[in-house]
Amino acid sequence: MKRIAILTRDCAGVNAAIRAVVRTAAHYKMEVMGIQRGYQGLIEGDVIKLGHRSVSGIINLGGTVLKTARSKRFLTEEGQKQGVKTLKDNDIEGLIVIGGNGSLTAAHILAAKYAIRVIGVPATIDNDINGIDLSIGADTAVNVALDALDKIRDTAISLERIFVVEVMGRDCGYIALRVALAGGCEDVILPEKDFDINRMCEEITEGNVSGKVSWIITVAEGKAKAADIAKQITKGTGLETREVVLGHIQRGGRPTALDRILAARMGAQAIELLKNGETDKCVGLKNDEFFTVSLGKAIKTKDIKVDSYYKLIKVLT
């Protein structure tokens, strides 16, 4: 294999993965092309050459130096065929896709439908890639959200107030659950678990009567909106409640050491897999050993076991 390409989504640690892919490929005398703006760039032929020096100084940067964009056109057969044409026109023999469910679903289409040699590298703050313990970007997102929550708690205690903090997580409550436990939150609302707003209000009222002066609840955006929950709590308890939406700050920021190391190892391993003729696979680490999951399996809904975490959060309240 003489020439490969990289296509990415964005989250902290992706640049570290790009760097690892490019420099590992250079070690094996492979050329690397970077596809700018994701699948939209693949369709439009927005391809640049990457070398050892072109990835200098990016290991500590959030986001992706290759930029990214969602592409509805790639959902069509016409868009897919145009993407395949870009790969062939540029003599690209293998593709590494760094991203989450959407990116890896498209990667699976390229491999299964068009026989393109593709390896996926899991990078998503939701950590929802099926069969993978930890995705690039998830640790940084949790730490960014936790830092914000720690600051909110200072105000919550000072003003004796209830706060509902909304974090990212459309279908997966990974960030909300981890932040709730690490931040000492009193409750968490998750896509994977039903919640009883009336019972929550009862617990807040009981705590207030016994002298508890502040309360923080994290909520995953896919389950409920912080503003709606805050209104219901105020109505149900008579206590002043504020909402905070953390939003896209969770996608950015300098990657943690864990994410940089994970990205470096996974990026390098993706090259090894392509070199050895593997395709339609997603790379992962389990017990500090590499393994692969088929892209067809990786893109299915991940079963997040939340009960033990939730029980501990309530015990420690």
Task: Walk me through this protein's architecture.
There is one protein chain. By secondary structure, the chain is α/β, with parallel strands linked by helices. It folds into 2 domains: 3-137 and 255-298, Rossmann fold, CATH 3.40.50.450; 142-251, Phosphofructokinase domain (Rossmann fold). The protein is 43% helix and 18% strand. The chain has 11 helices and 11 strands. Strands 3-2-1-4-5-10-11 form a 7-stranded mixed sheet, with helices on both faces. The radius of gyration is 22 Å and the shape is elongated.
Sum up the structure in keywords.
11 helices; Rossmann fold; seven-stranded mixed sheet; 317 residues; 11 strands; alpha/beta; 2 domains; four-stranded parallel sheet
Summed up:
The chain is α/β, with parallel strands linked by helices and 317 residues long. The chain has 2 domains: 179 residues, Rossmann fold, CATH 3.40.50.450; 110 residues, Rossmann fold, CATH 3.40.50.460. It has 11 helices and 11 strands.
SSE map:
Layout: E1 3-8, H1 14-27, E2 31-35, H2 38-44, E3 47-50, H3 77-89, E4 94-99, H4 101-114, E5 118-122, H5 138-159, E6 162-167, H6 174-182, E7 187-189, H7 197-209, E8 215-220, H8 226-237, E9 241-245, H9 257-275, E10 281-286, E11 289-294, H10 295-298, H11 307-315
Parallel strand pairs: 1-2, 1-4, 4-5, 5-10, 6-8, 6-9, 7-8
Antiparallel strand pairs: 2-3, 10-11
